[in-house]
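Morning F.,

Quick status update on the modeling queue. The single chain you submitted on Monday has been processed. Sequence for confirmation:
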Amino acid sequence: MAMRRGAQRGQAIVLVALILTVLFGFVGLAMDGGRGYLDRRHLQASVDAAALAAAYNYMNHTDYAQAEVAAVAEFANNERLYMTPNCSGYGSMSVSCTFSDPTNQTLTLTAIDHSIAGVSFRVTAVHQVGVTIMQVLGAGPTMRVGASATAVARPPGQYGAAIQTLSPGSCNGSAPSLSFTGTSTTSITGDVWSNGSITDNGSASGSVNGNVIDICPTYPPSALSNFSVSGSQANGFNIPDPGYQQPALNTSTRTWASANGSTESPGTYNSDPHLAGSAGCYFLSGGIYTFSAGFTQNGGFVSNLLRPPDEPNMASAGQPNLTTLRANLTGTRQTSILVNALAGSIPAGSTVFVGGQTFTTSTLANAADQTISINRQDVSGTIPSGAVLTVRAFPQFWDSNGVGCSSTFTLSSPGSGSLSAGTYSVEVTAVRWSANGVASCSGPISPTCYLRESAPSMCKTLTVASSGNVKVDVTNDPGAQDFYIYLAPNGSCTGLTYCANTGNGNASVTINNCPSGQPPPPDQEGMPLGPALPNRDPAPATPPRGDLANEGHCVNPATGDNVACPSAWTVGAVEFFIPGGGNTSTCLNLQGGGDIYVYSGYQYQRILLFEPGPEQPPPANTCLNNVAGHGITSLIGIFYTPAASVTIIGSSNYLATIAGGVIAWSATVKGNGGVSIMADPTLRTWPSAVRLTQ
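Structure tokens below.
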């Protein structure tokens, strides 16, 4: 027993020695490792600063050599390296430098041009750091420390931002961030930027008048092989959510007025209107509409555009199509009208007005034709040669999708008055007062009350007996609260000036005389967007010319006076706000049976659809939006759905148009027809940026 105890003596010393060695290693790891960690952090800050210095310098001078010199100087300053570096490759987009300091600092800088996506500058630095305790344990006298950083310098976009998808889809194995499918033909005006991949499946084709940028897969080949692209195609970098501020919402509780021809008011709609196939026409007053349960449309026609009664057929932009008779028009069962050469074409089914009588065309009449074929009709009396013939546009804007809501006006001379005998020319404009900061208003123009006046109607003539008058009766015109009457004492539809108005809420007025020195009517409408489509609004211009009623109409909110756009306030503009509902169905759901034409304004940053995302107060809206249409579907403004997807569907029957751009988590364009997405560079372009990417 005593011998065993003696044999165990001294074992504790061995154990203590082993434990001390391990503890010594931990101490060395803590001290030398901590020193290396702190040195690595400082080195990382130095290469970050160097990469940013190169990017900022390049943004200012667009010279690679200058940018590289700036990066080296910034790195040396942060690392306190005061000797002259030994560098090679300045201006070649690949620079290597050594500093001959005790830590053997080396620096490499590589620049890569990513076209419209910008220029990236990657800076890598390596040096040696001395060790103390770990050297005793055989780790060597120094340890290697390195760091790298990449900064991108992106110039401002030259085109408008047409489509931006934020999802990294297909770069992370999920569905593509942006895809074009089916046989859709898509026309894109502006830049396309995806933070993931872009796919072009099936027979989808089209054109991009701008640049196309995605993250993966590596370019080439082109992500849009079936598209013509006018600008650059390249791989780029993630571009962040612009993070628009959520608008100030109107909390007034509203219920959708379902009666045909109703005027809807901004506010909060707790129920989805669900416009079915039997829906009629609905005019939207200017303001913010919160659709807490989403907005679904599969019928009817919705718009915030103010249009006149009896819109004229246009020969060219701003010039109504009118002519004169080249022979008397008289007799029964007439099937044609002989006229001097037409300035423009007249579709079959159009209404023409001459000598106080209306006729319907039976076939297409082309420009320069001298005969208009009409449905068989008796002529009352004789309409003399030289009488002016005017033409009603076909179709009218408020007849879109077959709702039949367009307005018309009639002329009569019911009694005695102070007008001289003769023929008078008459045009009518629709008028609406738009309130700002007050519940409603009816004039005059002020900081809280703005005037909207449409382009003029077609011209009609009326012959008045001695000491007669002119009565104007107007049928319901969506959105109109008043009508301005312009009159001239001739039958040639020239020289008209303001004469009278029907008064707010009224639709008729009897005119006995007109004041002198009054202004002429506003500018005429533009040509239709395409065959079988209604007229455009007048082009924007400096008031009193140009569009005075719709998306091209701006005011100074400090005075209420009309001003040229862009300005702080677009009169009559709307914005749809759809909050997060905790599901994927609280959405904008425009189905193929409905038609909609709405515009946003500068007071809303021209955002038409706002669905909150991660940058706005929760909850985010992650729904599956659907945009289809029928006829003239046009959404004038930006779609901002940073956490939600949007599917834009074309068909052979219509052109779905978004004018302003799309910002979405993901987007799909599909169908078997036409889709148009047009960016407005006055609204939004890719902002210039200098930032670290890694």
